[in-house]
Amino acid sequence: MNGFQLTGSGCVKLEWIDMNDHMNTTWHAMLFDDATFQLADKIGINQERMKQGTPMIVAGRLTMSFRKELLKWDRYEVWSGFVAVAAEGVTVTHRLKANNVICSSCDMRCQFLDPKTRKRTILSEDLVRRAQSYLILGITDPFM
User: Fold this and answer.
1) CA separation for the pair 90, 81 (Å, rounded)
2) What does the domain layout of the chain look like in residue ranges?
3) Residues whose CB is less than 8 angstroms from the CB of residue 95 and which lie 6 or more positions away in sequence, other chains included
4) What is the DSSP string of 47-63?
5) Beta-carbon neighbour count of residue 107 at 10 Å?
6) Strand 89-98 versus strand 101-113 pairing type
7) Among 67, 70, 100, 109, which is least packed by CB within 10 angstroms?
8) How far apart are CA 62 and CA 68, in angstroms?
9) Distance CA 74, CA 53 (A)
């Protein structure tokens, strides 16, 4: 996955299986949300730094697409990166793969909140530069 970062891996748990005998969409969303936090941590946005005033990253809009079922005990990997970076917000893209096949994807437009006031804020130039180092080239921002 050229340009993508590995942000999660594991095995589909039995409790994630729905009445259709495949992984429920709820758990796709949970894995993508967690992957967003893993990617944010790579640029310095995490709980410890938020206690010191670093902005929180929050989803504003997201779209998910499903291509192939994930079944119980399937091993998976989540690959992630930024497709747009600005002080006001970022767009994150994720790919959930099993057996080297993309099973689902998610695009998420995120903004930043001040952890004390919980109002919208912007990223510092340093955090913008860090995020830009995880840009995936060649993918268009679906929200622009």
Assistant:
1) 10
2) 5-132
3) 1, 4, 78, 79, 80, 102, 104, 105
4) HHHHTTTPPEEEEEEEE
5) 19
6) antiparallel
7) 100
8) 19
9) 39
Amino acid letter, residue 126: D
Q: What is the pLDDT of residues 103-117, one digit of tens each?
A: 999 999 999 999 999
List, in order, residues 6 or more apart from 63 with CB less than 8 Å away: 106, 107, 142
Amino acid at position 54, single letter: T
Of the candidates 136, 99, 142, the residue with the CA atom closest to the CA atom of residue 1: 136
Is residue 50 very low, low, confident or very high in pLDDT (cuts 50, 70, 90)?
confident
CA distance 38 to 133: 15
Q: What CATH number belongs to 5-132?
A: 3.10.129.10
Residue type, 143: F
Question: Comparing C-alpha atoms, which of 3, 28, 35 is closest to residue 110?
Answer: 35
* Average pLDDT in the chain: 95
Residue showing tokens 């999660």? 8
CB 32 within 8 A of CB 76: no
Closest CA to 62 of 101, 31, 102: 31
